[in-house]
Amino acid sequence: MLLNTERLQYLVCIAETGSFSAAARKLNVSASAVNQAVQAMEIDIGIRLFERVAGKSPSLTPEGKALYFQALEIVPRLQAIERKARALQSGEEPSLTIATHSMTLYPRFTELMSSLTLQFPELELILVDAEKHQLSTNDESLGADIMIAPGGLCPQRGSNAQIIDNIEWCFITSPNHPLAKLKGEITPEDLEHYPQLLSLEGKVATSELLESLRFSPRLIRYETPDQLQDMLLYGAGFAAYPIKLAQPFIDHGLVTKLNVGHYDSSMVWPVELSWRSGLGTVGTWFIEQVLEQER
Question: Which UniProt keywords are given for this protein, alphabetically ordered (predicted)?
Answer without folding.
Answer: DNA-binding, Transcription, Transcription regulation
